[in-house]
What does this fold into?
Amino acid sequence: MLTRRNLLKRSSLLALAPTVPAFLARLARASEAKADDRVLVVIQLDGGNDGINTVVPYRDEGYTKHRDRLRLPVERLHKLDDQAALHPSMRTMADLFQQQRLAIVQAVGYPNPSRSHDVSMSIWHTARLDPVEPKGYGWLGRALDWLPPRPGVPSAMLVGEGPLPAAVIGRQSIAGTFSKVEELAIQNESVRAALAPNSPGDDLEAFVRRATLDAYTTADEVTSAAARKNGNASYATSQLGQHLALVARLIEAGLPTRVYYAVQRGYDTHAAQMDTHSRLLGELSGALGGFLNDLKEAGVDDRVLVMVFSEFGRRVAENASAGTDHGTAAPMFLAGHGLKPGLIGTASSLLDLDDGDLKMTVDFRRVYATVLKNWLAVDPAVVFDGRFEELPMLNERNS
It folds into this structure.
């Protein structure tokens, strides 16, 4: 039977392999009483989410002024306070807010914003503002480079189809992609075949091969445990829900990956936005709420933080096609255990605009810095080019 104690004993085997025998590595790890197994789950809303109709400033006179066909009826909104409300499709996330399991960071962006999808996404992924020379590695990849490796599985994984997001690419840390549990076993089998010793022996190369194979055996045990779990979670009715249900299975089974990444596409709503946006937000809300409740029932929700972002918001004024064009600032969401919940930061006024766009009040790197320090236990100074003040949205880590 796979237990977390056994997993933690084995997880350092490869890192220590060149210097100590495997049984001593296990003993060393067994003596560590406070091994950190916190997980960050990132959800990317791809295309530029209309933050104004997500967290609705229903009392702002500019909302009525700039939105006609896209204005949401006040009586259908899920009010958070006397100024802000969630979209009618976000009932589940409104419940999370009332349960103090959701924080909303308002008017998030960066200086001199770009309205290009590629440029803006590169900035969010690298946490660097130079779109011409993004300097290579992603903000999470750079952070994971500073954390102890977890042999047998990648440090970060994209769940779903498509290329790896730049955010998780590091110099040393390993990132992978998969869409079903069985793919992990296939990857492990390929690695195992490559590592199989050509001849018996006790030299260093043979020892490292055995240690690495031992680590992959651990990963196989976790994969098997995940495969045995019920994969038909009730919230997995959308593609995002299916991806989060898979992440929940792996977390509950003990897979030692630190960062999971999922993408929800379709937010580039230049025309006929109302129905598309409602559907997308409903899928996001249901998938997120179901995911957190799944983890809570399994007793592992204290290990998981979810962060939701989009590369930019939309213009304040609707366009002639009943849609919205590329804008600037938008809300971010954080959900899970250990939050200081509620509305964080200052909302932008819809009557005090910058060339028709919302003014940023929170630099996204402040959110990142808070997550790095207070969740992943990485000094933000090793990830960013400068220092950014943390936000009061995560409880202090236990030492």
